[in-house]
Amino acid sequence: MKKIFFLLIAVWLFLSVQAQEGRQLTKAETVNYLEKKFKETEGLKRRLRLPIASYSEDKAKRSCPIDDFVIALTGCTATISFTNNCSNYTFNSKGYTYKFDPKDIRKIEIYNDSSFVASSPIESLKIYFNGSSVRYTCSDCDTRAIEVMTLPYFKGDGKNFDKIRKAFFHLSSLCKAEDDPFGN
User: Fold this and answer.
1) CA dist., res. 70 & res. 93, Å (int)
2) At CB < 8 A and 24+ separation, what contacts does 44-53 make?
3) How far apart are CA 166 and CA 160, in angstroms?
4) What contacts 36, CB < 8 A, 6 or more positions away?
5) Residues β-bridged to residue 96
6) Residue 117 DSSP symbol
7) CA–CA separation, 149 vs 94, rounded Å?
8) At a CB cut-off of 8 Å and minimum separation 6, what does 49 contact?
9) What is the rounded CA–CA span in Å between residue 130 and residue 147?
10) Among 14-18, 81-85, 157-161, which is the least confidently predicted range?
11) C-alpha span between 41 and 120 (Å, rounded)
12) Of 32, 79, 119, 170, which has the fewest CB atoms closer than 10 Å, so is most exposed?
């Protein structure tokens, strides 16, 4: 009798662990995860490479910290905003806001921007969308529709890009399933 009881408990524990491992994040949990990953950039500095001919050596290696990274989701409309805080330099601080539907994400890749020093702890990623479905606004420009969104992220251990990419595609899948649960 004891053996059967322990066998049933063992099977129950095994199935409980399996159920936990197969659990998918909700939209809200995915957005929270993305915000956490992007907030890793806050306070870190993107070191810009500027032409030495037009700037002093000191300004050629200047840095701009990333601040105020926020990601919000209403239904399936995502809003991402952040600031490049360059107020102590020749360039002013600039705020960026992107508004988009995650269902429209087509491709995500690392953006090798030559204006940043390679040793910078922050890299950029590009997210490509189906059509001009992203509403882009910056602190010194008018709102416009764009097809490609560029975001800074913390390089970390080299796995952050893949984690962020997977999270965005997971969010996209959740929004597609919400729109048509039996669609492709």
Assistant:
1) 16
2) 44/121, 44/122, 44/154, 45/120, 45/121, 45/122, 46/84, 46/116, 46/120, 46/122, 46/152, 47/116, 47/117, 47/119, 47/120, 48/115, 48/116, 48/117, 49/114, 49/115, 49/116, 49/117, 50/115
3) 10
4) none
5) 82, 138
6) -
7) 16
8) 60, 61, 114, 115, 116, 117
9) 7
10) 14-18
11) 11
12) 119
95 HSE (CA, 13 A, CB side) = 10
Q: Each residue of 137-146: pLDDT tens digit?
A: 988 788 999 9
10 Å CB burial of residue 147 (0-12, 13-18, 19+) is middle
Predicted confidence (pLDDT) per residue in 80-131, tens digit: 998 877 655 445 567 889 999 999 999 999 988 766 666 778 888 999 999 8
- So what's the pLDDT on residue 49? 52
CA angle 70, 181, 15 (to 5 degrees): 85
Residue with the two structure tokens 């032409």: 51
CB atoms within 10 A of CB 98: 20
Contact (Cβ atoms closer than 8 angstroms) between residue 135 and residue 79:
no
DSSP, collapsed to helix, strand or coil, labels residue 179 as helix
Domain borders along the chain are 41-179
**Per-residue tokens: 160:** 């952050």
